[in-house]
Model the fold of this input.
Amino acid sequence: MFQRGVTTWQKLQALYQGILENGDKRTDTWLLVHSPVPIACIFFGYLFVLWSGPKLMSRRSPVDLKPVLVVYNFAMVCLSAYMSYEFTASSWLAKYSLLCQPVDYSDSPLALRMARVYWWFFFSKVIELCDTMFFILRKKDNQLTFLHVYHHATMIFNCWIGIKYVAGGQNFFIGLINSMVHVVMYLYYGLAALGPGVSKYLWWKRYITFLQLFQFFLVTSHCTYNLFADCDYPDSINAMQVAYALSLTALFCNFYYHSYLSRKKTDKTS
Done:
């Protein structure tokens, strides 16, 4: 029995070493990349804040975060726009193929440029965990839905796998599409944070959800094609991205239905 326990431990050690050693050597020394431990700590810290935050705020007044939200959201617009440009420029200059693009693991300037912008894409998902913190501090607990928590908590792992193993190649497409969508999304949040005077111009909120659904359709189609194509890109990554995009599609469709279609039917009935 003891020997079996030792063997299991050795297997776990070998698995962990494999995770560390089989990654992209160029990004190994970059912040939060080498080991899954830091990002796992961030994940569990996030869950702890989700559990404890609403309890701590239950007897407190909501915090006025208007200046913080304005700065934060427009800063995220700038970061998303920067990443959109870098993904586009890096892929264009490197003559990327949209249908099949292996990862360039060399130290060429363009390959490193693509890897660097993907690291920023990964790190932006860590920054975006602040969205949840702001909901808690403002006592907007109704916004802490399963969709919100699932999306934020899993994206950090999804993007960590990207920067650890495939910092480039056709993975750029996901970063590009998502960054472009986030320019629009955080622009909306930034304008909404300015106050009621701007609210009448924000009739296009529902179309953000539609835009997000469209991005999942593009990502699913792109990765599915590559999954069955003869391309020097890991099938495991494509399969993971397809499964993940489908899960988000289902959750966002459910959100869209209950937020807009179901409510519209109720209003007509009333």
About this structure: The chain has one domain: 22-269. The chain has ten helices and no strands. The mean pLDDT is 93. Residues 206 and 260 are 7 Å apart (CA to CA).
